[in-house]
Design a protein that fits this description.
about 230 residues, mainly alpha, elongated
């Protein structure tokens, strides 16, 4: 870069000299494109992560008394679950943020996250996106507000006693009952799928994505300037 930048400042003679090195320029351009593509993936990854975290923080804090420490605890729990399932931490955070739209306490959201992952994996398979986790979170949030019939389309059957608790219990009771109901149908599925050959591949992909997010966080302050120069 320094060499090309120096030469580009020369007059026509210098530019003509640079043109004679076309093969080197083409090779350099190809190299730039590879670096740019990798850096782009890194920055996109960190932007998706920040978007999920910001959404979670904003929506959780709509519940009076919610602290940043509680938001951070949910984020850390999502990262911890990623190590034993195939669901990326930012996807779990996205699902948690949707649960937060139902005005749930942070402790309730945290208690529901393993069940959220199990239901999402049971519905969509091992590759669960942020959007799919949001949809699953929306489903569970509806059940938490008494719409128990929302689960029937997923093959979940409930007894009258379970329905009554989900409709009339306090928040803690409803969350415990929802966890119990989903455990009967999808219990341990997210972890079990992580131990399959397909699941192991997804976990490797997720780990690679985590590394890119770290790199993206370091690159973000300078990447715009770099891309501008390459362009």
């Amino acid at each position: 870069l320094k060499k090309m930048q120096s030469q580009s400042k020369l007059t026509g003679e210098g530019l003509a000299s640079l043109a004679k090195k076309a093969a080197g320029v083409v090779a350099a351009y190809a190299g730039f494109n590879q670096v740019k593509a990798f850096m782009s993936d890194c920055v996109v990854g960190v932007l998706e992560l920040e978007r999920a975290n910001e959404r979670l923080g904003t929506l959780m804090k709509n519940v009076k008394g919610t602290t940043q420490a509680q938001v951070d605890d949910i984020i850390k729990y999502g990262d911890a679950l990623e190590l034993v399932t195939t669901v990326e931490g930012d996807a779990t955070v996205a699902g948690a943020s949707q649960l937060a739209t139902f005005q749930l306490q942070s402790s309730t959201i945290k208690a529901l996250l393993p069940s959220l992952q199990n239901l999402a994996v049971g519905t969509y398979g091992v590759n669960v996106s942020q959007e799919q986790m949001i949809q699953t979170g929306n489903l569970m949030g509806k059940v938490m507000t008494g719409s128990v019939s929302a689960l029937t389309r997923y093959g979940v059957t409930l007894s009258e006693a379970q329905k009554k608790t989900l409709k009339e219990g306090n928040e803690t009771e409803r969350a415990a009952m929802l966890v119990e109901v989903l455990k009967q149908n999808f219990g341990g599925l997210a972890e079990a799928m992580a131990n399959t050959p397909e699941g192991k591949i997804v976990q490797i992909k997720n780990a690679w994505g985590d590394m890119q997010e770290v790199i993206g966080g370091k690159l973000y302050p300078v990447v715009t300037t770099f891309f501008g120069y390459v362009a």
